[in-house]
Every structure is written in structure tokens, then in C-alpha cells.
Specification:
Elements: E1 8-13, H1 20-33, E2 38-42, H2 48-59, H3 67-91, E3 95-99, H4 102-112, H5 117-128, E4 135-140, H6 143-151, H7 164-177, H8 180-185, E5 192-196, H9 201-215, H10 217-220
Parallel strand pairs: 1-3, 1-4, 2-3, 4-5
Helix pairs in contact: 1-9, 2-3, 3-5, 4-5, 4-7
Bound molecules: ligand Z5A.
Ligand Z5A binds next to helix 1, helix 4, helix 6 and helix 9.
Amino acid sequence: MAPARRGLLLVVEGPEGAGKSTQVKRLSAWLGGRGQRHLELREPGGTPLGERIREILLDDPTREISAPAEAALFIASRAELVERIVRPALERGTVVTLDRFFLSTYAYQVHGRGLPEDEVRAANMLATGRLTPDLTILLRLSSEEGMKRADRRGIRDRMESVGDGFHRRVEQAFQRFATVEWQHAHPECGPIVAVDAGGSEDDVERSSREVLAGRWPDIFAG
Ligand code: Z5A
């Protein structure tokens, strides 16, 4: 029998530039300050294989990768991360904060690239062994605003370099994921709560922690 799962898997999702990395870092700092055992991770990456896949997928904006191969690479990185890092951490009672998970594959590869949802869903289940997040915080920001923020960093990576139509489809998909109907139809994604990401970093952190404190007051209240 699989060992009992004692930790929490908290995912932060949203379009590029929405502030996911910023909020994952802030949540980790909060958890660290409270003496809570925690682990901050991102996708793709987090393992030697995952970091190698990350380079292949993102670094070269001119690299051409077919849509199915792209999906398979994101999912391979996920499989490695879940098996080697996330599951053992949850079994040790760690709060895992994860910057992107399989909601991103639904947004970018299913809705953005047009791959069939059922097949991507089945591959994801194989990769995660049906691990479901305890909560996903979905940072809500328009793709234009997010891209403006991300552009302040300099050059665009391979995914950011895909045309605006692609990013608008991704943005619309993320909006749909916050609806009750979509979540009912996708129980494998766990509960998803949208948080407005248009305010300051402090505002977004406060809203995110309010959501978390409503569910886990012993960890996040105060
Ligand atoms: N992808 C996929 O296609 N399929 C998948 O299954 C998975 C991923 C898992 C990963 O890129 C790419 O892979 C991503 C989706 C795709 N590509 N796209 N396009 P990544 O990990 O390198 O990057 P990202 O996930 O898109 O993150 P990002 O661009 O770094 O955005 P972010 O993490 O949401 O934002 P940030 O780094 O926290 O903040 C961006 C800037 O805004 C930064 O200068 C901050 O200081 C600033 N910021 C943050 N919050 C605020 C607020 N509240 N106000 C003002 N400014 C702010």
C-alpha cells in the first residue's frame, strides 16, 4: 500500500508574467518564517532531467518542436518531478509550493496548441500517478499585462515568442478553469481559486494567503 500523504500540494498558475514565481517565493518565505517544513518547486524543471528538458523547451526561441513532442516533454519533466521529489516530500509532511503544474498543459498544449484534451489528460495521469493538488491559486491577469511585466526581463523564451493569438487562447483557457463547470468536469485538477493579480505584490500575497488561511488556518492564518 502507498504510504499516507501528510503534506500539502499548493500550485500557483496563470499566464506568463502574472507573478507566479514572485508569489511562490513569498509563500515559501512565509512558511519558512513559521518554521513549517516546505519546498519550493517549478515546472518544467526541479530534477536533473527536468532542468535539461527545460533548456530544450524554452531556451532557443528558434527551435521548432512539434506540438505532441512539446507536450510529451513537459509531461516527462512532470513525471520525474512527481516521482522523485513531490511525492516523497508530501509523504514527509512537507508543504510543497509548485510554480505551474498540469493546468498549464491544458492551457498551453490543449487550448493553445489544439491537442486533444482526452489524450493529454491520460498522459498527465500516467505522469502524476493521479496526484491531485490540494489547491491551485490561479493568478488572473490579461496576457497583454503579463507579457509587459515579463518583457521587462529582456528577451522572450521559446514559449513567450509564440504569437499573440496563442497567448490569447491560453488566457481564455485560464479564465474558463476558474469556473465551477470546468472544475466539475476536471476533478483531476483539484480545487482552483482565482486571485486578482493586477494589484501590487503585497496585495496579491495578502489575497492568496486569505484563500489559504480559509482552508488551513493552522498554517496560514495570522
Ligand atoms: N508551459 C507549457 O506550455 N506547458 C506546461 O505544461 C508547463 C509550462 C508546465 C515556463 O516558463 C513556460 O512553459 C511558460 C508556460 C510553458 N511559458 N509561457 N509563455 P517559465 O517558467 O520561464 O516562465 P513563466 O511560468 O511564464 O513565468 P514568468 O514569465 O517568470 O512569470 P511569473 O512567474 O508569473 O511572474 P514573476 O517572474 O513572478 O514576475 C514577472 C515580473 O513581474 C517580475 O519582474 C516581477 O518583479 C514583476 N511582478 C510580479 N508581481 C507583480 C505585481 N503584482 N505587480 C507588478 N509587477 C509584478
